[in-house]
Amino acid sequence: MKTPDSQENDWPALLSGSPLFNGVDFTVIAAELRQSQPLCIEHGQVLLDPKRINDDFYIVLDGELLVCLAPRVQQPLVRLRVGDCVGELSIIDNSPPSAYVMAAVKTHL
Known about the structure:
It is a single chain. This protein is of the alpha+beta class. The chain is built from three helices and eight strands; from the N terminus they run ααββββββαββ. The chain is about 15% helix and about 20% strand. The longest helix is centred in the first third of the chain and has 6 residues, at about 30-35.
């Protein structure tokens, strides 16, 4: 996989493995993709917290995220891997995240 830090301008190649973008014509969303910013979070860092409003959605480009009902839980509800997305329901529902999402390892989004 291409390194997210070095390929900021190659979003179509980076996102092609994501089910969210399956069949999407990237020329139609080119302006939105140009506004996207890569993000790297470290192991254990909380990305989404039910106590904080979320206005973004994220796609795992490299690494792994854990979805948990409480921070620092050993048994996550779900493991999100490359191509998976998170945060979109906060935007659709206009509500805070329903769970904690944290990095299982250093993760590029």
